[in-house]
Each structure stands twice: as structure tokens, then as C-alpha cells.
Amino acid sequence: MERYASCHCGKLVLRCAGEPVKVSLCHCFDCQKRTGSLFSVAAFYPRESVALMAGEAKMFHRPSASGFDVSFHFCPDCGSSLWWEPERLPHLIGVAAGAFADPDFPMPQQAVWSEQRHKWLALPLASHARNPVKT
Ligand SMILES: [Zn+2]
Ligand SMILES: [Zn+2]
After folding, report:
1. Residue 135 and residue 130: Cα distance in Å, rounded?
2. Could you tell me the distance, in angstroms and rounded to a whole number, from the CA of residue 129 to the centre of ligand 2?
């Protein structure tokens, strides 16, 4: 199984092999700011399963609410963040689930930072007030 994720303009393309080891939805304010939406969905893959097939990304590095830094890789032309490297999970790469543009993509197993969730949002997921999980 191979899936391709790409940015809004299509210049950045990632190939992801196999199934994601975890899919996680995050309600935190950083994810809200980054996406402009109300939550983000990350598909976590082992590092060796992800390859950049086209384009050159820029990087934005920041601390996270969990206490570990994260480096985001985004398209310098259209601004989409396509993947990120969480120091909390150094063996994994997070890929923006929406970038696969695939309604059949596996659904998240969990939602984290629900204490920052917009109150009207109800999701059929196990929910954590913060992020308790170390994968
Ligand atoms: Zn782009
Ligand atoms: Zn978040």
C-alpha cells in the first residue's frame, strides 16, 4: 500500500508506504492557528516509510503544549504544512491527513487536547483533555 500526500499547489509530494501506525486528531490552539481550521489530523508513519518525491519545503520549529518541540515542513509557495517531526515521537513523522485528499483514509483512533476543543464539535472518538499518550 502506498499513498501520496501533497500540498495545496501540488509542488510538494510525499510518498507514504504501508498503513499509518497511528492517526490522531488534535484540538490544541497551535493546531488551530497552523491550519486555520478547528483541529488537525495527523497520520503518523515510521520515518523510513515516508519519502519526499517532489518539491522543497521550508521549516518552522516551535515548542508544543506537550513540552516537546515540533518541526513543521511547509510549501514555500502555497503555505500548506505537509509533514512534521515531533521530538516527542522521534521515530515517527506526522503527515497532514487532509493532504491525502482521500475520504477512505483511516479515521483517527483518538482526539487530544479536547480541553481546547470548540464546544459545538462532537466527534465519535476517544477523547483526552491533554495529550497523555507516548507512542
Ligand atoms: Zn504548495
Ligand atoms: Zn495540536
Report:
1. 15
2. 12
